Amino acid sequence: MVQLLKAPDSSGEHFAAKRLGTAFTIEPMGRKGFIRKRERDHTDRLMAERALEKARTTMVDGDYDVIVLDEINVAVRLNLVSMENVLDLMAAKPEHLDLVLTGRDAHPDICARADEVFEMVNIKHHFDGGVMAIRGIE
Predict the structure, then answer these.
(1) Confidence of residue 121 (pLDDT cuts 50, 70, 90)
(2) N or C, which end of the chain is more exposed by having fewer CB within 10 Å?
(3) What is the DSSP code (8-state) at residue 126?
(4) pTM value?
(5) pLDDT at 80
(6) How many CB atoms are closer than 10 A to CB 88?
(7) Domain map of the chain by residue range?
(8) Are 2 and 69 in contact (CB under 8 A)?
(9) Does domain 2-129 have CATH number 1.20.58.480?
(10) Beta carbons within 10 angstroms of residue 55's beta carbon
């Protein structure tokens, strides 16, 4: 998993990955904190571009069957990486590889190129009632 917009040891995925050992690797390539709480800047763009390049290199190396680009759709929406670069990455994907793109508000062109598209919809969540993240869940 190559994570955009997330710093090391800052989300539940990092803690889960540690328990999985070598069966799952995670590359957090963002800064700590939420962009919506601060202005995005050149550092965020540079980190997102590096994450996309890391994903491309990893994909070409052929060591993995699945690569997850965590929050890539958000990075596209925030103009941290170009949609064209993501579409190019998708087009270069080897046949044996599953490429998973996550994040809200996937661009219609990315959805059109994808083999499968899923959308999770919040019906009810404890955060809506003012309860912050629960340790071990989020």
Answers:
(1) confident
(2) C
(3) G
(4) 0.75
(5) 92
(6) 12
(7) 2-129
(8) yes
(9) no
(10) 23
